[in-house]
Amino acid sequence: MQCRQQSLLTETPACSAATALTAPNWPACPARLRAFRHYGHTEAHGYRARDQCRASAAPGMCFDAACQAAMDRAFLTATAVPLMGLAGAIVYKFRPLDWRSQEGKQVFEDPDTGAVFQSEDSVNPEKDRKGELAFRAVSYTPWPVEEGGKGDRIRVPVGPVSNTQPRTYVFPRILPQPSKVLAVSLPRPMGIILEEDKRRGRVVVGELTAGSEAAKRAKIAKLNKALENCSVQVGDVLRGVTCTNFVYETQALWGAAAPKRTIVLYGADKQKWPQVMGALRKGDRSDGHVTLIVERRLEGTADLETGPMATETSIDY
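^ thats the sequence. predicted structure below, dont judge the formating
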């Protein structure tokens, strides 16, 4: 120990061998140690210089038990936390997905979307002929509907942009009867001018742009009534529209899988005008046709909803 202390301030031949064995990193800073010796610094300054040399010459190395224990704890923490998260994700991924009862409630999952729902034991969700859940679109969220609920069943293509599949959506009628709910598919740009009915809280078709696909279909439908369901008409009430969203799979470990460009159905009922316009803007021509869900009064229906309609014209879609 005396030899090590002396070697900090004086370089004697007797201590050269001991210095090489006890402090292999000191030669990395010979100039600093010689400077301390030359200017007559105290022994405490020499020890401080030694510690600085150790830190700079051998970063990440420990020279005592306390330092090594701290490094071991940091390593275990950095390793154990991700492994625990991965284990939890694996358990969640492969958990049972069948119907199960939890405190008087049943939990079920849509295998296509990975969405998990909960309902009372006495309530059964509706399923289509393929055994898939039927939904009611509320904004961007598909909600299961009770079996036998009122409404028209409409098949709408949704899912990843490259692999959409038809799913069943339920739309109760909101217009004076008789009316009908139908799905119309149009390419972008559609050539439809929408208006806001502020008094009734709806979005309606106000005009069709001349020369657009929507206008051409409307003209053909006037000549052939059988094609009315393939066209949009002035006065139709917008109930829903497909748009493109980036969606993470529910069962995927967050960040482990990139979000997918997904076609979803936006439910326009009771939604504010800016939100509906925002949904209509989501999507590119390369994403395919847009599906509009509209409700239409049938000919001869009395207009029981009297009163002026305060409107605000949107951009041409």
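The chain has two domains: 2-57, 133-316.
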